[in-house]
């Protein structure tokens, strides 16, 4: 196994409920290191670009609207097998199907307002990290 970096977003439903610390505790307890973190308000253009792979999906408009509805926390996580590890820690997209102890089982409200995003592949992690962070701002 290799040390990897993955990209994470704590979504507006998390910041609205002051869950940044609680979610970060689950991340850190799982052995993932938060090597960069910034609280931002995502612009419409940023959200549309970030989710452009979903542009043809019926929920795209709703997704962009939600992601720009309040502050988000963008993060870079580092660790052994970080991409797959974080997906395991997040749990299934639909919180009703998320395993016990996962972030989405604990905190997510619905499939849309599901508290966190994590990259789905190492390649996408690299692309997503570059959209929000300069290499010099990542401190491993
Ligand atoms: P995320 O990992 O951020 O990537 C795509 C997002 O689309 C996903 O999390 C969900 O929050 C969202 N999504 C997926 N399916 C639906 C749906 N049926 N309705 C609203 N949002 C959805």
Automatic annotation (TrEMBL):
ATP binds at residues 11, 59, 87, 93, 104, 114. It comes from the Bacteria. Keywords: ATP-binding, Cytoplasm, Kinase, Magnesium, Metal-binding, Nucleotide metabolism, Nucleotide-binding, Phosphoprotein, Transferase. Its cofactor is Mg(2+). Major role in the synthesis of nucleoside triphosphates other than ATP. The ATP gamma phosphate is transferred to the NDP beta phosphate via a ping-pong mechanism, using a phosphorylated active-site intermediate. PANTHER family: NUCLEOSIDE DIPHOSPHATE KINASE (PTHR11349). This is Nucleoside diphosphate kinase. It comes from Methylobacterium frigidaeris. The lineage of its organism: Bacteria, Pseudomonadati, Pseudomonadota, Alphaproteobacteria, Hyphomicrobiales.
């Amino acid at each position: 196994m290799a040390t990897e970096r993955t990209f994470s977003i704590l979504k507006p439903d998390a910041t609205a409920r002051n869950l940044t610390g609680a979610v970060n505790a689950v991340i850190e307890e799982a052995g993932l290191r938060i090597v960069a973190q910034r609280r931002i308000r995502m612009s419409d253009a940023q959200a549309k670009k970030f989710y452009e792979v979903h542009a043809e999906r019926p929920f795209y408009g709703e997704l962009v609207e939600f992601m720009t509805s309040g502050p988000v926390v963008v993060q870079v996580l580092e660790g052994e097998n970080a991409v797959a590890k974080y997906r395991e820690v997040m749990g299934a997209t639909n919180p009703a199907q998320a395993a016990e102890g996962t972030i989405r089982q604990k905190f997510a409200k619905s499939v849309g307002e599901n508290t966190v995003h994590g990259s789905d592949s190492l390649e996408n992690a690299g692309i997503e990290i570059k959209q929000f962070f300069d290499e010099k701002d990542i401190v491993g």
